[in-house]
Write a structure and sequence with these properties.
It contains ten helices and nine strands. Helix 2 links the parallel strand 2 and strand 3. Helix 2 packs parallel to helix 3 and helix 4 crosses helix 5. It starts with a strand and ends with a helix.
Length: about 290
Amino acid sequence: MKFVILTGMSGAGKSTALKIMEDIGYFCVDNLPIALIDKFAELAALQDAELQKVAVGVDIRSGQSLGELQAVLDKLNQDGKSFEILFLDSIDEVLVKRYKETRRTHPLAGSERVDKGIKMERQQLGFLRKQADFIIDTSNMLTRELKTELEKIFVQNQDYKNLFITIVSFGFKYGIPTDSDLVFDVRFLPNPYYVEGLRQKTGNDREIQEYVMQFKEAGQFLDQLEDMVRFLIPNYITEGKTQLVISVGCTGGKHRSVTLANALYGRLRDQKEYGIKIEHRDIYKDALRNK
C-alpha cells in the first residue's frame, strides 16, 4: 500500500495537490484528526482492503494536536507501516500575494498581518519539512506543472530531487526579476536590435540565434555558465534548496537574453536530478510599447 501524508504551507497548493492525487488514483482524506491517522493507516493496510493508494492531508488546521503528529509518525515507523511525506512550500512573498488576492485570513494570523501568521506556521511545520521525502516549491508553478511533478513521483515512480530550476530571460530596462537567485548580464554581446531585418525578431527565431551565437564570446560565456550551474546544483540539493531562479538579462529582454536562456535550458533540461522550465518575461514588451 502507498500511504502519503500531504502537508505544507497554507496557500502553497495542498487542496489542488489533493485533487490531483485523487485524479491519479489515490483515496484522499483532508484534515483527518491526528489521533486517527495511525488507525486509518492500519485499516487501509488490510490485505482485503480496496484502498491501495491513500493520501492524507495534514496542516496547521490541526491546531494544538499537530504537536502529537511526531509521536504518530514514530509509531507508524515502529509498527513497520511505510509512509511518505510530501511537503508543498512557497516563498513568503508569493504566499502573502495569494492571500491578498483571495482575501482569505491566514489561520494563525488572527488580527496580525499575514506575514506574521506565515512565520509562525513555518516554525510549527518545520519538523515535517525536515522529514519530508518530497518537497515541491510551488512559487512559480502553474497547476499543470504541479500535476506533472506529482505524476513523476507517484505515477511514473521516477527518482525525484527537490530542486526545481527556472531559467528566466528579462530586459534590464524593465527591472531584474525579484525572485532571482543568480543574475547574468549578456549586454556585452552585440545587439541584433541594430541590425537591419532583425529588430522585429526574437531569440526564439533561428536568425537571432545564429547572429548571437556567431560571436565566440557567446559560446565561451555559455560554457562557463553551464560549468558553474552544474557545480552549484548538487550543492544546492545537499543544502536543501528547493527553488533556483537563474535570470539572464539584456537591454530589452527580446534578443540576446532569450537566445542564451534557451541555449542554457537546452543543455540542462535532460537531467533527472531536478525539474526545470524556461520563461521569457519581457520578450514581447517592446512590441506592445510600439503599438
